[in-house]
Amino acid sequence: MIRCFCALAAMFMLISAGHIVPLSPAGAAETQAQRGKYLVSIIPCTDCHTPGTFLGKPDMKRYLGGSDVGFEVPGLGIFYGPNLTPDDETGLGKWTNEQIATAITTGKRPDGRILAPPMPVESFKHLTHADALAIAAYLKSLPPIKNKVPGPFGPKEKPTSFVYQVLPPDKYVPTPPPPPPHPPGK
Question: Fewer CB atoms near the end CB (10 Å): N or C, the chain?
């Protein structure tokens, strides 16, 4: 998680400072999907959209197939990083590349709803249209994975999976370690 925020913060600072940052080796020939793969790897989308990442064991067989850990936004609820693969039922399969690029850079879904606050739209709005379309092309090139993520859950609803919280120090209570495993046969 810290890696995700550090990468986003660095990218945002460079963009907002007006620096032009080459994101691929000079002179490298690449397809639109290859460019998208590169961008997805440095942003890194996998942190919020691949199961197991926040638990320290990313499930790369379900790469970008949607998170199993939600983000609590106080007062709004708990939101899980959705499936970014082109599965028609649980992912982006019915979205066009243009719709995906628009969602990434504006936070607006094709149905008019706004993406959940954990999506760093404020940083991503600085992507060029070509780069947003490259990300969309890469996502559409992935194998579809059927995975409906939990939620979203309202602020008074009980989640069904892990939740990532940001708490002020006076509200933090350490989680006790799990009990040691019992030896077999005892």
Answer: C
CB 147 within 8 A of CB 90: yes
Tokens standing for residue 80: 């899980």
CA dist 149 and 147 (Å) reads 6
End-to-end CA distance of the chain: 39
Cα–Cα distance between 101 and 156 in angstroms, integer? Answer: 33
Return the pLDDT at 181: 84
Residue 25 pLDDT greater than 60, yes or no: no
User: What H or E segment, with its residue span, contains residue 121?
Assistant: helix 121-124
Contact status, residue 64 vs residue 84, Cβ threshold 8 Å: yes
Rounded to whole angstroms, the Cα distance separating 65 from 59 reads 9
Q: Check: CB of residue 47 under 8 Å from CB of residue 164.
A: no
C-alpha distances in angstroms, 129 versus 59, 79, 98, 105, 134? Answer: 30, 26, 9, 8, 9
The average confidence (pLDDT) of the chain is 86
Rounded Cα gap, residues 45 and 32, in angstroms: 17
> Rg of the chain over CA atoms, in angstroms?
18
User: What pLDDT is stored for residue 184 in this prediction?
Assistant: 73
Q: Which amino acid is at 62?
A: R
Could you tell me the pTM of the whole model?
0.77
Q: Under a CB-based contact definition with an 8 Å cutoff, are residues 100 and 139 in contact?
A: yes
